[in-house]
Amino acid sequence: MTPLFDLTGRTAVIIGAGSTLGRVMAEALHAHGAQVALVARNPEKAAPFVQHLLDQDRAKLFQADTNVKADLERALEAILAWSGRADIMLHTAGTNSATSFFDITEEEWDHIMNVNAKSVMLACQVFGRSMIDAGNGGSIITISSVSAGPPLSRVFTYSASKHAVNSMTQFLAREFAPHGVRVNAIVPGFFPAEQNKAILSPERVASIMGHTPMNRFGDPKELQGAVVWLASEAASSFVTGSLIRVDGGFGAMTI
After folding, report:
1. CATH numbers and ranges of domains, the chain
2. How much is the pLDDT for 197?
3. Cα separation of 29 and 8, whole Å?
4. Does 1 have pLDDT greater than 60?
5. Can you tell me the mean pLDDT for 5-31?
């Protein structure tokens, strides 16, 4: 391991650590030396998926509803009591729905927007303030989607929420830059996970493959390099406000 990618002595907070992508990216941050604070809304449900990390040093599971600021503040206090710092915040919580536009209820809109966008804003308020007050810089990494724009069909609310994530990421990159806190987004292509299985019909899969030059889904481990880079010294000096695509060429494809 080169010093550029060594995260020894840093604490990474993973919001939504029980998700497939959150768990796999947490593994990479841990493997590169970081302490990992695994934050989940339901720790009992998340524990079996992250037990292999909890069985090692430098990992602990914390509870928080990411849509409740007081919960996030309580989690931050517990994380600081455990490790003394919070240098990296990776937000991976997310949800999706394939409801057609005219059938979307206010309740569904609010739920998706709360999980995908409001929780990002709240986490950046809580952990961004902590990083700024600590005066040691930091790295905030959000998870966007190729759906952010141009929007994908059949996922209206999800696309709108991820477009909001892009906007927040770039706005906060400007806001936090004077304090040495970087804010970037990873833009994944199609990585099969619980939240999108419901919309992956054979016709949908064929359409996705036809628009993905690499002609396959991504493996969650293919996100590990991007998250370690954005968290590490290799990117810490001058990379902020960036939307880093890991999409198999999806964003480069037209007809």
Report:
1. 3-246 (3.40.50.720)
2. 63
3. 10
4. no
5. 96
